[in-house]
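Quick one:
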Amino acid sequence: MRLAIVAKLLIICCLTFAIIGEEAATTKGAPQTFQAEVSKMLDILINSLYTTRAIFLREIISNASDALDKIRFQYLTEPKEPKNDAGEAPTMDIRIRVDKDKRTLYMRDGGIGMTKEELSANLGSLGSSGTKRFLEKMKESNDANFIGQFGVGFYSVFLVSSKIRVASKSDSSDKQYIWESNGDGSYFLYEDPRGNTLGRGSELEMELKDDADEFLENDKIKEAIHKYSEFIHFPIFIETIKFEQVKKETSDEDKKDEEKKDDEEGDVKDEKDEEKEKEKKEETETIQKKDWELVNENKPIWTRAASEVTEEEYNKFYKAITKDYENPLYYTHFTAEGEVQFKSILFIPGRAPHNIYDTQIVHANIRLYVRRVFITDEFKDLLPRYLNFVKGVVDSDDLPLNVSREVLQESRILKIIKKKLMRKVLKMIQDIADNDKRLEKEEKDKKEGDSEKDDKKDEESDDERKEGKVLKEVTYPKFYEEFGKSLKLGMIEDGTNRGKLTKLMRYKSSKSEDKFTSFEDYVDRMPESQKNIYFLCGESVDKIKQSPVLEDALSRNVEVIYMIDAIDEYVVGHITDFSGKKLVNLAKDFKWEDNDEQQQKIEKGRKIKYEPLTKWFKDLVGEKVTKVVITRRKTSEPVLLSSPQHGITANMARIMKGQTLGEKNPSQEADAKRVLELNHLHPLIDEVFKRIKTDEKDKVAEDTAWVLVDTAALQNGFDVTDATLFAKRINRMLRQGVDIASDAPLLEEDVSEYEVEEEEKKEDSEEKKDDDKEEL
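Output:
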């Protein structure tokens, strides 16, 4: 809706506005009026277009910066030395002061200034831009890179002002003029009765509204400057008032009176008089002193070449824009060229913020500038959500702005910037990982005595990485500890860059428990006969090591990746393979790669032999398992419970049930289906097989089978379906183990034994009392 209004306003702005009336030479004269359409548009601009009142400071400071840029450019070919009537030369800066008594805000610049005609053309007609016309004259030059491409930013002062006066003095005119308006559709234009007070430039005098008291405070003004105009090329000063204690000066008359009094009293003074005299000499008074304080101390280091900026400067700049107290972990400084040009510095913080995964918070991490003027930091999609930890600045000269500089148009240029930023951030992270490999290789080379070759490589590496921070120590594990979950979130959300992100994944494994390993490192360590990448998910490495299904892989000398984050099972669901190697979850039913023809024949014969056993188990447990098979795994456990190839694992079921907004419904529980794997070589399974061949309704066999199934459920992370029955079966089996009948009743209690014991205690107590009396 607002963009539609802006579009209509821009159409109106393109019209030529006639200025009615004539001005007197030294008086205000008759008021001149805007056209009716302009008056309406001015009201809309003031009350609808801008949403933040402090924006007016950004607008007028940007205009002042334009004026200073213009005069600097003009003086390169036509230098002058203008002065005001007092003989003072204008300064190349911006100065702001507040008069609380008059409720007035002043801003002065030593820029190009405006003649009477220019004041009428630029301020008397909305939509007119002096900068735009100046650029048209200077279009052959590449240095005239100014901000104000539209002419309505100036009118934002009416957000906080009831009346404004613009005094301006141009080198092209001998006189200084004032443009004055209260925003009601008319204005005055007249010669300044004060004469030439500026020498050159402009001064804005803004009488503030009753509800704009906040802009009478220096702190509020400095806050707005730091946010919007911190990196303007020219110094911005604000007038400050300081109170100092100084020695009180004695007038000549007071001195004469004191001397006369001394003559009358004589030269004799006691100690008390001397003390009073000393205190009198040391009397002080408080005086008010005005001074100019520089506000924009931080400089836009992104405009400089990366080779010219020191690491200390990068660290200082990072802390200034993020308010972080720690140095960044890594940064990159680059200039993007091509169809769109922009400069940028991106930082990776040393630690993840506590609210990094809070979806309700808009993380204002990337600050967007246009020609060093801050535009916004509230873009939700300048970088995707999973990279919201990256901080930095982007400054473009190519971005189109709307009339207020507040709402950035969704343009093709912005889309290109997003794409390039995304590519650069992923390269930053890959650079950190590659740097670790380089350092590890250098360490290995040093141990082998090849130090000269190593030093040469180090120099080459520094040259190659001149745009980013040169890391002297292994850093990627630290980065991954802080931001690994964010990259995993990207694996799910960003299908376009999933291939790059997969290379950045790091996990502990059965052969790399002391440090992270990548899929690439895993593949490099694989024997040629191994075709798959094997992994196992769990709550922690210790719990994964207790998993019965891990025993089989370790016995075959197969490396297993340990995945302990809740998001990992979601991530692997989006990875089909890596380097042609399929990812296989050991918690699911699968076949090993060594399943040759001979092995297949053995398995076929085994299946036929134990078919009565598998059928009996399936009939016993019913729908609680999808199927019963003779396991192919090498394990010491009698029974294993795994998940179907295309079902969810026990770990995934646990995660789903543990979600804050997850509902524990029957359908969700049913998704965690189970495959019962029997170890035919285990004595307990063999005993059950023997018993059911004799009697399929053997009670001991049933109890044993159920206990084995429920125990396997606990070991493999599944829920026990009926804990009460499980406890009763364990109780019966314990009775059998110690030769107690299953129906043996509870023992009868003999209360008389307790009475004897109580009597003995009483006698012992009385004897002790007697002994104590004898001792006394």
